[in-house]
Amino acid sequence: MNSPLDQQDYQDIWYTSHDGLKLYARDYSAQQAGLSRGTILCMPGLTRNSADFSIVASNMSKHYRVIAVDQRGRGNSNNDPNPLNYHPGCYVEDMFCLIDHLQLNNIILLGTSLGGLMSLIMASIKPELFNGIILNDVGPEVDTAGLNRIQAYVGKQPVVNNWQDAMQQAQATNQQALPDLDHVAWERFTRAIYREGEEGQLELAYDPAISLNMKVADEASVQADLWPQFTASNKKPMLVIRGESSDILSIDCVKKMCAIHKALVFCQIPNRGHTPLLDEPESLRALKTFLANLPTANRY
Known about the structure:
The protein has helices at residues 54-60, 88-102, 114-125, 144-153, 163-174, 183-193, 214-223, 227-232, 251-260, 281-292; strands at 11-16, 22-28, 39-43, 65-70, 107-112, 130-136, 194-196, 202-204, 238-243, 265-269. The protein is an alpha/beta fold. The protein has a single domain (11-298), classed as Rossmann fold (3-Layer(aba) Sandwich), CATH 3.40.50. The strands form two sheets. An eight-stranded mixed sheet has the order 1-2-4-3-5-6-9-10, with helices on both faces. The protein has a two-stranded antiparallel sheet with strand order 7-8. The two termini are 30 Å apart.
């Protein structure tokens, strides 16, 4: 699944979920051993995996330990035999298992889309563990236009024959959100979200069964009111990144977030929909500035 464009600069982590699944994460340990300023826990969107954070993790690991996860049913983590377990509550339990497994503290949550919703839930359950929250193109409520778009394709895309076909499929699905990627960037993107199946065919790197539960669980939980969890976190330093044409995080939602969280930092990324890749110069600059302004113990 790893792209030949990437040199592996992380270690593999394997751990066991509360219900016995073998789960995976990447560990980008701080390059200056012993000088880590905390841990950034990176959680991807619904159909994505730890490879989403390869560039941002390499940048941030100069001073932070960066953990990027594959949720159950994604990437290298086991599929769940019970699709009803594919919901945010279960993913949050998995993250607390990982935190316990690695004995993490001094954590900054970085969540893209679904991972951002998880961040709000986690911070409301055990606020003492977390020193900051970064939400990538998501807020306490989800725009129905974006949710309907996602539901239209998750688990429904056909198997492809080769990497060229995979890239064409990736572009067809994501071109509107990522209009300015060049060939190299599309190859990197494609190789992060596809993998070779057991019979050598290429497939998206997630269990198609995650779509079976979307109408029952994911839609209910995504559309649920997470404003109480957001409000409970309004004393935590928070950065919100939004793609300028996002159909998931509306400007009205951002305005309401800023009214509740007076110190919230907001950054909008041009030429991006849902979601920014976080390797954009504007994204990296916003991340570094936000980390630099955290309490001294966490300063980037």
